[in-house]
Write a structure and sequence with these properties.
Shape: globular
Family: Belongs to the helicase family. DinG subfamily.
Strand order of the largest sheet: 3-4-2-5-10-1-11
Oligomer: single chain
Strand content: 5-15%
Distance between the termini: 53 Å
Radius of gyration: 27 Å
EC number: 5.6.2.3
Keywords: ATP-binding, Helicase, Hydrolase, Nucleotide-binding
CATH topology of the largest domain: Rossmann fold
Number of strands: 18
Number of domains: 4
CATH superfamily of the largest domain: P-loop containing nucleotide triphosphate hydrolases
Largest sheet: 7 strands, parallel
Pfam families: DEAD, Helicase_C_2
CATH architecture of the largest domain: 3-Layer(aba) Sandwich
Protein name: ATP-dependent helicase DinG
Length: 667
């Protein structure tokens, strides 16, 4: 809880430099120039109410660098500062390690010990009312009538019921081991389905409301990019009133916001709406929506997956049928606040309205995505996502850009500090700034505070210029030979980052018999356990794909070599990125550089960042794709990477790795 106190004039608070010094001494660290520079820049941005983008390399101590001025501002303004992250791992680091240690260190120098809380979306908290009341049943068809899954879900539901009686927070992440989404949905509601604290019989003890109340009384609120977007773009605030936001892992902001505003429509979502509304309106009206859903199901089953540039007549007619049938159901339900004195009926009606609104509004969005005079005027893209054994085909609609939303809704109302180890693509912040919508209105600045690592001395960037360009038919034999020779020189200790799961598995299968070191592949076990096994056993190698490019932190001798099989451009048939490229080109820009090259640069930098995680780390980044040395865009990609010592001579990295292997303790 926030401790009541009389605001101390700014001049009576210790400076950020003094607070940083206290924090560093208490945490047993040493002063780093990059951290000092970042602290001062964040403090100035907050004071000037100007936006700031900070690139801070691994080892800078950037979380402390933004937390210190954030805490000071919260003390001075008596308003919380919001810290937004992309990953659960960083949220937990902040709440479980960084903030408790900082609060204890700084508490004696400030009006009170800094307080903090984590706030998640409503779906992440158990709903007490739904756990005890007759809420509409979820889609039983999700179980596909597999008796094993039905019984497994039943056991999870039983465990959830027991947990509901003892939990103090209702936070799903505190339920260990976890449960399936199928089971959790029976105990949670979305913000749209929620009755509201004032109308819900369990409102006074609602876990989500209690979490929000705690967040409104602390100095630092930790949340995620998705909830930050929902708060900024929604009609009702989700986060407590605040003036300053720090966006950590800011390179992920655009993708996370895009996910939040992407609409989905399938026969499953239509049929869920039918079941929700079925007993609340006349049957013939509900039957019209069911028939429209069946038409949609048949159409999507026969249509080819991919981007839909022009609206086929039959799809347009089917979407119109779904839209109109959903609207008739909404109208038949009557006033939205009916039955407000009967929580059970109110809950059923709210669930029905939520499902119907989603179906209706998404169909409207898809129809309105067409009919523009030119490609440059188009605002959204529609595509058909192919189904799987467990999920039917699904139509999706997403904006071609979220820059306008971010500019108006996030940056227009508050001061925002964005930080990551990877923001300056091609050596400038312009690419990401354009995606964020910065550059218009209030001013902003981008700074690179550097890294504590001496990259040219600690690492080699080797580009295998002599290899053939990668093709579409899997890994060439020359690539497998190159990988084997590098791993043998390193004595294992290799993280292999591949552009696809197929390539990672193919390399694993081809090299397991050939190499005499343990070789793990993503998918063999949970990623967390694989990374732990990789870190604990020095000769072990780990191959994998996207989540390993950004999520691995293995300091020390267990990681000496990072292999990247190819420049990680997005798939040419990816509907959203290909549509964004074409849209940029239609407006006179370079679609390839603005979208595909930016995507590749960001991932390359993140992948290369896996090598040096501690001051004594040494090793090699090996990129097998010769285009990094020969293509016209190579300068842009290289300019996005740390300044490693570069070579295209294969003998140099092998010799360096052999020397490291010979000097590694225990070998």
């Amino acid at each position: 809880m926030r401790v009541a106190f009389t605001a101390v004039p700014d001049s009576h608070l210790p400076s950020v430099d003094e607070l940083l010094s206290i924090a560093v001494n208490a945490l047993g660290g040493s002063e780093r120039q990059g951290q000092v520079t970042m602290v001062q820049a964040v403090r100035k941005a907050i004071d000037d109410q100007a936006h700031l983008a900070v690139q801070a390399g691994t080892g800078t101590g950037k979380s402390v660098a933004y937390l210190v001025p954030s805490i000071r501002h919260a003390m001075d303004s008596e308003k919380p500062v919001v810290i937004s992250t992309a990953t659960i791992a960083l949220q937990r680091q902040l709440v479980d390690r960084d903030l408790p240690r900082l609060s204890e260190a700084l508490g004696k120098e400030l009006p009170h010990e800094p307080t903090f809380a984590i706030l998640k979306g409503r779906r992440n908290y158990l709903c007490r009312y739904k756990a005890t009341a007759g809420w509409p049943e979820e889609d039983e068809q999700d179980q596909l009538f597999d008796p094993r899954e039905v019984s497994a879900t039943g056991r999870m539901v039983q465990r959830l019921q027991e947990w509901a009686e003892e939990t103090e927070t209702g936070d799903r992440d505190e339920l260990v081991p976890g449960v399936s989404e199928q089971a959790w949905r029976q105990f949670s509601v979305s913000a749209q389905e929620c009755l509201g604290a004032n109308r819900c019989p369990s409102g006074a003890e609602c876990f989500a409301e209690l979490a929000r109340a705690r967040a409104g009384e602390v100095d630092v609120v930790v949340t995620n990019h998705a909830l930050l977007a929902i708060d900024a773009m929604g009609e009702l605030p989700v986060l407590p009133e605040h003036e300053v936001v720090v966006v950590d892992e800011a390179h992920e902001l655009v993708d996370r916001v895009t996910s939040v505003v992407t609409g989905e429509l399938s026969d499953t979502s239509v049929m869920l709406a039918v079941r929700r509304v079925g007993r609340l309106i006349e049957q013939p009206i509900a039957d019209q929506l069911m028939e429209a859903g069946e038409d949609l199901k048949a159409l999507l089953a026969a249509a080819p997956p991919g981007r839909i540039d022009e609206l086929p007549e039959v799809l347009g007619l089917t979407l119109a049928l779904v839209r109109d049938a959903a609207w008739r159901c909404i109208t038949a339900l009557g006033p939205r606040n009916a039955d407000k004195d009967d929580p059970d009926k109110a809950g059923q009606r709210k669930a029905a309205f939520t499902a119907l609104d989603e179906v209706h509004d998404t169909a409207v969005r898809m129809l309105e995505a067409y009919g523009h005079a030119s490609e440059a005027d188009r605002a959204e893209v529609v595509w058909l996502d192919a189904g799987t054994d467990r999920r039917p085909p699904m139509l999706r609609v997403a904006p071609l850009s979220v820059s306008g939303m971010l500019r108006d809704k996030l940056f227009g109302e508050r001061t925002v500090v964005l930080t990551s180890a990877t923001l300056a693509l091609g050596g400038t912040f312009d690419s990401l700034a354009a995606q964020w919508g910065l550059g218009e209105g209030r001013g902003w600045q981008g700074i690179d505070v550097g890294s504590p690592f001496d990259h040219p001395r600690a690492g080699i960037l080797y580009v295998a210029k002599h290899l053939p360009q990668p093709g579409r038919d899997g890994l060439p034999q020359a690539y497998l030979d190159e990988i084997a020779e590098l791993i043998e020189a390193a004595g294992g200790r290799t993280l292999g980052l591949f552009s696809s799961m197929r390539a990672a598995k193919a390399a694993t299968e081809a090299l397991r018999e050939r190499l005499d070191v343990p070789l793990l592949c993503q998918g063999d076990d949970s990623t967390m356990l694989l990374v732990k096994q990789f870190a604990d056993d020095e000769p072990t190698c780990l191959f994998g794909t996207l989540s390993l490019w950004q999520g691995v932190d293995v300091p020390g001798p267990s990681l000496r070599l990072v292999i990247i099989d190819r420049v990680p451009f997005p798939r040419p048939d990816d509907p959203l990125t290909s549509a964004r490229q074409r849209h940029v080109a239609a407006k006179g820009g370079n679609g390839f550089m603005a979208v595909a090259a930016n995507h590749a640069a960001l991932l390359l930098a993140q992948g290369a960042g896996r090598l040096l995680r501690a001051q004594n780390d040494r090793g090699v980044i090996a990129v097998l794709d010769p285009r990094l040395a020969t293509a016209r865009y190579s300068g842009f990609l290289l300019g996005s990477l740390p300044p490693f010592w570069r070579t295209t001579d294969p003998a140099i990295p092998r010799a360096a790795l052999k020397r490291l292997t010979e000097t590694t303790p225990g070998d």
